[in-house]
Write a structure and sequence with these properties.
CATH superfamily of the largest domain: Probable tRNA modification gtpase trme, domain 1
Radius of gyration: 19 Å
Number of domains: 2
Distance between the termini: 26 Å
Largest sheet: 6 strands, antiparallel, barrel
Number of helices: 5
Number of strands: 15
CATH topology of the largest domain: Gyrase A, domain 2
CATH class of the largest domain: Alpha Beta
Mean pLDDT: 94
């Protein structure tokens, strides 16, 4: 299990909360069951990614879970849009504990903790509980689950090919350029940046692509990637011999190598 209690947790409540948020973000928020969650993005009007987060239904209220390393808080980004809507945004980061269970279809059943599925880190499930119960939860779960170190969670993320906003994805990228297209509902009504991402999907292709690669030698974040003699991209995340790489779209078929001559293989 991973202790993500340092993550930002923003509650959105009020009569208009779901419809208001649904009109702004990329995920379709209608019909999220209690204990359910949906990965979502907030885009700029031109379609670039501004925030990457998960919307969880916590006892009928929406809770936005965001990794704290991202450039801007989802609370700061959303607050200017509230205006006259019946919506209240509240920072509950210090009030709630958050534990993630990578790869589990559902979290363990622990009294006083609410499940949230899927996990905010991707594949898996979460538990959300009052912060006052944090130590009790860890103690109760320690008999069955080992507490993963930050490096272990990062290695799991990289090997699973899950992009991190602010590292693999920047605020210059469209969702399709950052491997985040699955967080966009193309069948819902309007949302910020919809026209730009729909145009790329229907009429063209992104400028860049994210790839999961491996090699026979350790890889390093920041290393340039070459195709023949020309630089075509860089490694954005690395763990051992596995990495996430961002390359130019036209060069995405390879072959690839690092500046040191290490051959890179695309993992599927």
């Amino acid at each position: 299990m991973a202790d993500l209690s340092s993550w930002s947790k923003i509650a959105a409540s009020g009569a208009d909360a779901t419809t208001w948020l649904d009109a702004l973000v990329t995920a379709d928020l209608e019909g999220i069951p209690e204990g359910g969650a949906r990965h979502s993005l907030l885009l700029s009007p031109t379609g670039s990614v501004r925030a990457d987060f998960t919307v969880a239904n916590l006892d009928g209220d929406l809770l936005l879970l965001q990794e704290p390393s991202q450039p801007r808080s989802i609370l700061d980004l959303l607050s200017p849009y509230v205006l006259s809507s019946d919506v209240r945004l509240a920072d509950r980061s210090d009030d709630l504990a958050l534990l993630a269970f990578p790869g589990l279809a559902k979290p363990p059943d622990v009294p006083g903790a609410t499940p949230s599925i899927p996990s905010c880190i991707g594949r898996g499930a979460d538990l959300i509980a009052p912060a006052i119960d944090h130590d009790r939860l860890l103690s109760a779960l320690s008999h069955e689950f080992a507490l993963a170190a930050d490096d272990d969670v990062e290695a799991w993320r990289v090997s699973a090919g899950i992009p991190r906003f602010g590292q693999d994805v920047t605020d210059e990228d469209l969702p399709q350029e950052g491997g985040l297209e699955a967080a966009v509902s193309f069948g819902k009504g309007c949302f910020l940046g919809q026209e730009a991402v729909a145009k790329v999907r229907n009429l063209g292709h992104p400028r860049r692509a994210l790839l999961l690669v491996d090699a026979d030698a350790p890889l390093r974040q920041g290393d340039q990637i070459f195709n023949e003699e020309a630089p075509i991209g860089a490694i954005t995340s690395a763990s051992g011999n596995i990495a996430i790489a961002k390359v130019r779209w036209k060069a995405r078929e390879g072959p690839f190598r690092t500046g040191a001559g290490t051959e890179l293989r695309v993992r599927t």
